[in-house]
Amino acid sequence: MRNFVLRNFQCLSFLSRKALFRSILKNHVRNVGFGLERKHKSYSTLNQDPKAASVYTHKNAEVSFTADKYLNLKRNPNFSELTQEDITFFQSVLPSNNIIVGNEDDLLPYNIDWMRKYRGKSKLIVRPKTTKQISEILKYCNDRRLAVVPQGGNTGLVGGGVPVFDEIVISTNNLNKIRSFDHLSGSLICDGGCILENLDNYLAEKGFMMPLDLGAKGSCQIGGNVATNAGGLRLLRYGSLHGSVLGLEVVLPDGTVLDNLVTLRKDNTGYDIKQLFIGSEGTLGIIAGVSIQTPRKPKAVNVVLLGSNSFEKVQETFIRAKDELTEILSAFEFWDANSVKLIQAHIVQGSKFPLDTNYPFYILIEVSGSNKVHNDEKLSSFLENLLENQIVGDGVVAQDETQAKVIWAIREGIPEACNKAGSVYKYDLSMPLECMYKLVEDLRRKLMDAGVYGKDLPINNVIGFGHIGDGNLHLNVSAQNYTPEITALIEPWIYEWTEKHNGSISAEHGLGLMKAEYLRYSKSSSMINIMKKIKKELDPNGIMNPYKFLPD
Amino acid sequence: MRNFVLRNFQCLSFLSRKALFRSILKNHVRNVGFGLERKHKSYSTLNQDPKAASVYTHKNAEVSFTADKYLNLKRNPNFSELTQEDITFFQSVLPSNNIIVGNEDDLLPYNIDWMRKYRGKSKLIVRPKTTKQISEILKYCNDRRLAVVPQGGNTGLVGGGVPVFDEIVISTNNLNKIRSFDHLSGSLICDGGCILENLDNYLAEKGFMMPLDLGAKGSCQIGGNVATNAGGLRLLRYGSLHGSVLGLEVVLPDGTVLDNLVTLRKDNTGYDIKQLFIGSEGTLGIIAGVSIQTPRKPKAVNVVLLGSNSFEKVQETFIRAKDELTEILSAFEFWDANSVKLIQAHIVQGSKFPLDTNYPFYILIEVSGSNKVHNDEKLSSFLENLLENQIVGDGVVAQDETQAKVIWAIREGIPEACNKAGSVYKYDLSMPLECMYKLVEDLRRKLMDAGVYGKDLPINNVIGFGHIGDGNLHLNVSAQNYTPEITALIEPWIYEWTEKHNGSISAEHGLGLMKAEYLRYSKSSSMINIMKKIKKELDPNGIMNPYKFLPD
């Protein structure tokens, strides 16, 4: 932003502050901490090259089985057990390199989620390349009552994409073709297994972008994104997948292929069946193809980091951003002072934070649009108003793309910093904005009153951060260890609190295994009743991703 | 637009051209032709004051019964017939002024759609004021097997909102309270019977707007908008209701109230059941309450009218508009030369069209955003590029809100002009943009070849207009009279053509009675099969809006 002068705002000069940011840049990337990114990538590699797996399987073998941790879960005896005859059938459908069977090391990456929190006991992984193969596999499994787990990039956070017992994993890794792109309408049709980042790169060359962006973009697959109704960083601007997905190709448990890969923005012909699969977490069918509306890639993007003295001021900043930046506002994120302490302790040790003073809250605002000069003028006027009215204390504006990435890296380094600090209890909640941070404060007080929160105590930190623009709070509790006592202090209290404040117990992560039994805190029994009817109607044998999503 | 100079562009000076536009302004309003508007209003008035009905009922009485025109439709004998005991029950639930029974004149406005094309034979209208009353009414009807038709503003175009036989009409006219508005998140909660324009006016005072806009806004109700997944003029910018509706309160046929009136932008807890009701056209339940995400009202809006020499150039203009106007583009409409002839013949006789030269195609572009100077600069640069590259021939830019309304009035006067020209066969289709206008040309050729299209022939005009931004074509055929021969020439040919080009036979009007039997042209048998399962599951007795929506 040339000639951009604001009294209190420091214009980050990348050259002079390079050293300061080097360590941040070294440890972070735009989308997720390098550590996580590496783990993701390694899974992909493992799938291709079983020999490379040995280094990782050693560590993976330490992860305990889900079935040993969730003692209330029992294998459904209605499901058949895998036989040699079954394997022979799958071998008739798929070439041998697309079937993994027998070798524990090769099976392991598909049995364990990337958080290494859940571990199943699947004995067979099938990796179809075509919709027809998925159809043949599912029809067979349905007829034989063999339970299955659809698995995309295996980047989920609630244990939804890995087996619990011996469910067959149907991996969509091999479904990775872009089928068509229409530059006139911006509609993209691709296989469900295409990696989000690959799609975004493909579109970038054509001046378009994916309407969603999330930390796991380097590994997560569009079919999995749709199946989990992934939210992420661009929802504020481009809306949810319920609005941007135009059509789906879904294989039902009985092998029926629902072909609804239309590219139409308007289509009022009957119930919008595809919506049922958006957010169904693999419990109704497998998403083999996706048609999605993609927006133009903005020609200019800028990012600003602000320090704020109260959560009320954060909200006021948001109202003004909506009012003054309106059509160019593309992200509005926040985090608290405790998050910064974690970042400083575990990610950028010894480095100075971009803002000189400490604030209880920090705000990241991203603007993007078709004209850099116009964006900068709007942003400049907006920031001046904030300062004049003492709504924020201080701030920095990125001077180029690299600096913008640095500011984003702070926000996106928080989960990683938290992971490094200890065992993390992760909660992903949405609620009306005005009460969002009260939950963090109430939980801190509760844990202090219980005598477990503080220096050298079982819980060393409780942090709040997330997407202000979507009312989506990520609340992380950093503990020395996972213990039943701590769990019992937090749950179901945190869900009850959320229910009382008209919130959702899962804003964007989904239900998976982790939250299935807590669904009642966000949905009435009548709603759950209809969900169960739909599940029964589409998957009468219950073979699709069992033990998860819906309560018994 | 101050200091806005373009070589070929005429800057409309309202003062000097006042006389020219006066007649257009006189005959049009922003949202719909005055004639239609009056009809809508009169229905509302009629509902309040039965005495005022006499003038209209005289004309309405001439409309023939749907049952006499659609001879394949037979009253379902499983449905009970209304008894005095039933009426006594409804009188116990509702005050007497919310029940209409017996008087034919009073029943008539609810039995006839506003196009005066469909006419039912209902003997009872109930007008509940609360969700609880709807629940009691529906439960009773379900137990007694009394068929019902939910009716909102009665502005539908496919006969979905009026009875066919003696179905009881459940009108939502009395459900008209705004329940809450959160200026922080922009979420509005209101009764399903709130009139769209009233909601928009309410929000305008707070600096917000409804994310949808359509011709019937003065009469249509938000519950009906949701039930029909109304598209309209703002979809290009703000997306469909599948994205902007946050939650619904729906009464199921058995009286169950599905309470899902959340105001959360992110909520991944289970299947997104509310989506099923968006576009269900009253066949699954009654929408008693709506929670919707509302965007900021733009501070500056401008409109431009362009003349284009080919449909290819129209498409090129659209690509450039997406590329250069991107985040401020809020409408991109088109119409053909034949549409203008109709406008000139029937709406603004003797008046000069704003552009001096005739073009085969016309384009309306609306831009809106938070900063007038920025909008104007983007628009100016965009228009200069169009002229320099000879992509458009000529154009005018509105100089103020009144002129903007005049340009909009031309676009929105087309359906009315067509109605005045004769009996109109209306088609509402969506398809890939590149083949959109080919359908109009192919149909003209087909009708010419059949010897029915031309001066003094049965068909006097075939026009194409619509929403380029959404790939949504409105194709109107203006005939001397409705005849089975003409119908047979057009249908199902037009649906087959649309199917062949991967289009939808109903972009935004819905299926209703008109298109139920043609659903197969847009949806596979597997999709229709699932729709039927869902219908059966939620409305096992089939009492909700029978004879429509799904084929037998």
Task: Summarize this structure briefly.
Chains A, B: Its EC number is 1.1.99.39. 2 copies of one chain form a homodimer. With 552 residues, chain A is α+β, with helices and mostly antiparallel strands.
Count of domain modules of chain A: 4
User: What is the tally of beta strands of chain A?
Assistant: 17
**Helix share, percent of chain A:** 25-40%
* CATH class division of the largest domain in chain A: Alpha Beta
The strand order across the widest sheet of chain A is 1-14-11-13-12-16-17-15
By helix and strand content of chain A, what is the structural category?
Answer: alpha+beta
Which descriptors apply to this entry?
4 domains, about 550 residues, Alpha-Beta Plaits, homodimer, Uridine Diphospho-n-acetylenolpyruvylglucosamine Reductase, domain 2, 20 helices, alpha+beta, 5-stranded antiparallel β-sheet, Uridine Diphospho-n-acetylenolpyruvylglucosamine Reductase, domain 3, 8-stranded mixed β-sheet, globular
